[in-house]
């Protein structure tokens, strides 16, 4: 039987293709994405990474093996380091002050995604938590590689493209896939079914996040 990751990717391949070709990523690759849409995205991504870091820390707390505790604790640290790099790099380049960031609420898609990950991290077993976290790693890497392959050198968003298509992020994705497959190998059929639901739900949130950035989504009231 193929590992959980292969099954989950195959089951959600159509969703990934929809994400890969959605307007935000198509225009990002072409370098034609508007500054307003990218600014909305990086502000919300910075908010998201804080929540994602908390969810990774909870995964570390639930991990049954010391090596996995270290892996997820370091991943949580990296998420926060990346968030701070956004403040120091992209935020400076796009004229976003710390005060402006702090005063911008989480958009509906970002709020829903972070809330979903934290609720899963608190309430569900370790295996399900990893399945919910995996799409953020894996889909981001695949989208990053795809955009990298078709982006021109003078693309104004080259720094973002290089980050998510880079070797360091690819290694983190490989480690996350390995940890998830390791957890699934010892899980019951009932837990495996919950893992698949979590992976699919997180994949849907990935689409919602990018779609929300393209629409510059805000609370209607």
UniProtKB/TrEMBL annotation:
Record's GO cellular component terms: cytosol
Sequence ranges assigned to domain Thiaminase-2/PQQC in this UniProt record: 23-215
Pfam families: TENA_THI-4 (PF03070)
InterPro entries documented for this protein: Haem_Oase-like_multi-hlx, Thiaminase-2/PQQC, Thiamine_Salvage_TenA
Taxonomy, superkingdom: Bacteria
Xref: PANTHER family: BIFUNCTIONAL TH2 PROTEIN (PTHR43198), SI:CH1073-67J19.1-RELATED (PTHR43198:SF2)
Name recorded for this polypeptide: Thiaminase (Transcriptional activator TenA)
Provenance organism: Methylobacterium gossipiicola
Top-level taxonomy: Bacteria, Pseudomonadati, Pseudomonadota, Alphaproteobacteria, Hyphomicrobiales
């Amino acid at each position: 039987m193929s590992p959980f990751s292969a099954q989950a990717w195959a089951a959600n391949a159509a969703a990934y293709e929809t994400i890969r070709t959605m307007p935000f990523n198509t225009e990002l690759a072409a370098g034609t994405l508007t500054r307003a849409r990218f600014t909305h995205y990086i502000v919300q991504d910075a908010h998201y990474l804080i929540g994602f870091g908390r969810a990774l820390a909870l995964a570390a707390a639930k991990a049954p093996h010391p090596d996995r505790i270290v892996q997820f604790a370091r991943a949580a640290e990296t998420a926060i380091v990346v968030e701070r790099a956004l403040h120091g790099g992209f935020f400076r380049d796009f004229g976003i002050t710390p005060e402006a960031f702090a005063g911008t609420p989480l958009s509906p898609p970002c709020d829903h995604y972070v809330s979903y990950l934290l609720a899963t991290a608190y309430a569900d077993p370790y295996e399900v938590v990893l399945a919910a976290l995996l799409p953020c790693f894996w889909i981001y890497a695949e989208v990053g590689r795809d955009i990298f392959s078709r982006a021109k050198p003078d693309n104004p968003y080259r720094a973002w493209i290089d980050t998510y298509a880079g070797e360091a992020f690819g290694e983190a994705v490989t480690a996350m896939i390995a940890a998830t497959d390791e957890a699934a190998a010892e899980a019951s059929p009932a837990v495996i079914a919950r893992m698949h639901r979590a992976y699919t739900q997180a994949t849907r949130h990935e689409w919602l996040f990018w779609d929300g950035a393209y629409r510059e989504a805000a609370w209607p009231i």
